[in-house]
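WP5 quarterly update. Target: Chondroadherin-like protein. Source organism: Cinclus mexicanus. Length: 731 aa.
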Amino acid sequence: WGLLLLAVALGATAAARCPAPCVCDNLRAHVLCLNGSLTAIPDTIPELTRELDLRGNSFMVIPARAFLATPYLTHLDLQHCKVEKLEEGAFRGLGRLVYLNLASNGIVLLYQESLDGLSSLQQLILEGNRIEEIQPGAFGHLGSLTVLDLRANALVYLPDMVFQGLQVLRWLRLSRNALHVLGSEAFAALPALRRLSLDHNELQALPGEALARLDRASWLDLGHNPITYVAEEALAMASLRHLFLDHASLQDVAPDAFARSPQLRILDLRENQLQGLPPLAGVGGLVRVSLDGNPLLCSCLLRPFHKWLTRARVQAEGACAAPPTLRGRSLDSLKSPEMRCSRLWPPPSPPAPLEQPRPAGSKQCPRGCVCSPDFHHGSCENRNLQEIPRDFPEDTRLLDLRRNSFRTVPPDAFPGLKELVSLHLQRCSISVLHPGALRGLDSLVYLYLTDNHLSTLAPAAFEGAPQLAYLDLDHNAFTRVPASTFQLLPNLISLHLQHNAIGELAEGDLAGARGLRWLYLAGNAIRHIAPAALAPTKMLEKLQLEGNHLLEVPTAALWGLSALTELKLSRNPIKHMGDSVFLPVASSLQHLYLDNMGLEWISPHAFTGLGPKIRSLYLESNKMSNIPDMSNFTGLEILNLQDVPFHCDCQLLPLRRWINKLNLHIGATCGSPEEAKGLKVKLSTTFQTCPGWGQGKAGETNPNKTKAASKSSKKKRSGKSSDRGFSKSRA
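Structure tokens (predicted):
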């Protein structure tokens, strides 16, 4: 009895300490604080909690030692929490944590100590952030990690030894980034890796040197990369069994391309541009080759490959595209005499000779700086330098010059650094970037000019850096977008201009930025966006305009942005939202942020065209007097309606019925009448007096009913057209 009373007492204490917006299950030591309005990690979470789910909050920054009060955590979920920065030591004290999910946030950089203290962590999910660069040592304290998920970020470059410390990692997921440069030692510190996902990137050649370090990897996915040719002995992976090169741009494969991967069993070459293959040498264990979707020319020149298939007992999947007499015939149904040479098959163009790596330069490291030959890094951070130092080693790839006082960057400021990939010039009091300042930086991908005093840029400011893909100009003094400067940047992917003083987006401001995917303009003073201002950016995927002075949705400027998946308009003083305001991007939009705008009225037709593709919709902290019908938003994962003062009368019943069918935490509460104030819309009893309440109640008990059925039943019950929306009345 004593132990029972103690357990009850402890449970009561824990319950008393459960934070207000959370649900605490003390028996299982689980705490859920889903889709709430939390802006900081609660400090009253029960100490013995093992699983903490904080999805859908608004933390922005995870500060140092944020979880010291919960040292027994084993699982932590921070998905969709708008996190942009992990401070050094953010997770210190969580030595028992085995699972950490940070997916779908806005993290840009992983610092050296961001993940310190997670010695037991086994799974780290960072999918769907904006990570552009990983600093050396970022994973150095994760000695137990087995799965690292970095899918759908903004990585272009992987430096040498970037994964150092991950001694037991078994699966590395790098799909859907923009990788096109891999250091030769990028994977050198992964002795236990079994599975590597590099699909959906921008690799133009098979990164054989980097992959050769993976002695034990058995599964490699390189599909959906623009690789055109696989050269002789291009892949030396002793344990590789499954290789995916599907949906690439392959035109030819050398006979001994895979000779140094003798364990290969499955080779996927679907949907390429191959007219044929030679007999493949050194792959005695090969079981299947998939060639579906290639323009196979079944002439006499394909006979050697066909005979090899039979002799080696390899199953081939694929069909002839030519000649016409054999079109559609499967490879395994062909006989040698049928493959005639009535037409010559043009031999493939020989591959361009591989460029031999240059020997490292012999120059000394500038005085007062630190150069790391192992990582090809140079650093002069915070040395009170007045001029940009020279004489860095010629093979330097990352140069950190932050927190100095350069004031200007002169022409030809970085001589001899043709291999430089990442240049950090944050907080250097720079007010002038002279034309030709970056001349000679042929490999530069990342340029960070954050927190300087730049107010204008010359058209030739970026001359000589044609590979530049990530440009950070936030926290400067621009009053308008520096027009004409992007003409020299055909590979620009990401442009950061947030927290300047830009007043408008004019036509021509973004001329030349035809490959731009992410545009960040938050925290400016933008009042107007010209209809053609975004016209050059037809590949744009993310447009962030939060915290500006827009008075209406810039609908006219959105036409032509057929790839846009994310639009942020939060914290703009948009009071009214008219018909079809998102129609130009309705076919692609997935994430829409309309929170904290003081929104008073939304047209019932405002969301025309939007539907199942919408995954997250943020409408919290507004004052709208109606909610459009969203019953066809069947793909919703997040819907936030917190701090909206709903008037819970019978006109709100359709909304109440709809949200009751969603398996989501929505946060909708009643603002009136007085007897319902503060109650969740789902729980308010005021609807029980409404006509049709009894019929609706039965339908609410089955959360698996389709939205279409729900919408149909609403029409029948109310006799009203669904385009009236979910409205409220204060009358």
